[in-house]
Specification:
The protein has 95 residues and is α+β, with helices and mostly antiparallel strands. Helix content is 62%, strand content 15%. It has one domain: Arc Repressor Mutant, subunit A, CATH 1.10.10.10. It has five helices and three strands; from the N terminus they run H-H-E-H-H-E-E-H. A three-stranded antiparallel beta sheet has the order 1-3-2.
């Protein structure tokens, strides 16, 4: 693995490692959600959710689309979805 690849992976994992961002990504794994939906699930302020969404967007992990007054967020990178799925299997599934 090249040094630039290692740095890119480390940056991605560092971004994902915050508990709120990881929870947001787990919630977005299977569907799009609005900031309001995420706020209810994450149980923090809308401003805090928005701040974490902004970090994820700036890293290119998620994107959004506007529909009337709603902003729907989704994961843009299939590898992130696969990584979350693998982490769930390894750490969250009952064996």
């Amino acid at each position: 693995m090249e040094e630039s690849q290692i740095e890119d992976i480390a940056k991605l994992l560092k971004t994902m490692s915050h508990p709120i961002r990881l929870k947001i990504l787990c919630l977005l794994q299977d569907r799009e959600l609005t900031v309001g939906d995420l706020h209810k699930e994450v149980q923090t302020t809308n401003a805090n959710v928005s701040q974490h969404l902004s970090i994820l967007r700036n890293q290119g992990i998620i994107t959004y689309r506007k529909d009337a007054n709603f902003i729907y967020n989704r994961i843009t990178e299939g590898r992130v979805t696969e990584l979350i799925r693998t982490m769930r299997e390894l750490f969250c599934e009952n064996h």
